[in-house]
Amino acid sequence: MKLNPTIKKNIKRRQVIVDDKVYTYKNIPMPTWVELSLIDVCNRSCSFCPKSDPSVAPDTFQMMSRKLIDKLHDDLKAINYKGAIALAGYGEPLLHKDINYIVKKLSNVAPVEIITNGDTLNSKQLQDLYLNKVNKVLVSMYDGPHQIDKFNKMAKQANVPEDLMILRDRWYNADSEFGLKLTNRAGTIKTGNQKSPETYSTCFYPTYQFLVDWNGDIFLCPQDWQRRVTMGNMMQDSLFNIWNGKIMTKYRKNLLNGKRCDSPCKSCNAEGTLLGKNHAEKWNKIY
């Protein structure tokens, strides 16, 4: 199936962020995309998301602490981080009570993007996020085209720049893959026209990104919804040590060599080469 035009546009936008800023620290290529799972709860239950099945991804209501945010800020500053930070992960980020603090703190070291369903968003909150220096607010609209007018009016009332908010059409059915770049979320979802896990072998995810869970656990990417294998915990070690550590290195080498042989990668059908080509080339030279 052809990619939704909105997805194509977002991939092109992210390519600039991810691959145009490849840099090294201590001769090691650094990540340029860090995703945070601020809170383990969502106010929606979508069929294409593991949150639709409590036995797979239950709402625990756990949330990231200010202490962890401060540590993340310091660790990113220490490696002279040059990428972006995305607030999304395994829950709805706007449900976190400290969202403004988080945006303000992390915007000191990198552009901060929020990926939200927009259900709790209003003009006052949007203005607050802007004043706290959020870079982008990406709204996934699941209910229908009528939401476009709603969010455009909200942005106007908030008196924020027109390009602050990116609206993403996600109101389609399973035949159109819900308007998503649909994946099986590392073997946890069967909804829609899912490809076989054997469809793709090489994956660039661990060459340019990682995900930080609410408690500081670091995962390869946001596909691992069952949190099968942690790369380390940032409250117990530095981000640099985890990024360059034995576990991350093992997965990175295997995936660059086309070997999805370890859990959760062997169950994953995500096309992991859409982004990160330049990072992959740098890592291949090292390995």
Our Rg estimate from Cα atoms comes to 18 Å
Helix content: 25-40%
Largest sheet: 8 strands, mixed
Portion of residues in beta strands equals: 5-15%
- How many helices does DSSP assign? 9
User: Taking all residues together, what is the mean pLDDT?
Assistant: 95
Strands of the largest sheet, in order across it? 7-6-5-4-3-8-9-10
Number of strands: 10
Shape: globular
Helices and strands, in order, run as HEEEHEHEHEHEHEEEHHH
Q: Which parts are unreliable, with pLDDT below 50 for 5 consecutive residues or more?
A: none
Q: Give the structural class.
A: alpha/beta
Distance between the termini: 35 Å
- This entry's quaternary arrangement is single chain
Account of the 3D structure:
The protein has helices at residues 5-19, 66-78, 99-106, 123-131, 146-158, 205-208, 239-243, 246-256, 277-286; strands spanning 24-25, 28-29, 33-36, 84-87, 112-116, 136-141, 165-169, 209-212, 217-219, 232-233. With 287 residues, the chain is of the alpha/beta class. Strands 7-6-5-4-3-8-9-10 form an eight-stranded mixed β-sheet, with helices on both faces. A two-stranded antiparallel ribbon has the order 1-2. Helix 2 (66-78) runs parallel beside helix 3 and helix 4 packs across helix 5 (146-158). The longest helix has 15 residues, at 5-19. The radius of gyration is 18 Å and the shape is globular. The relative contact order is 0.16.
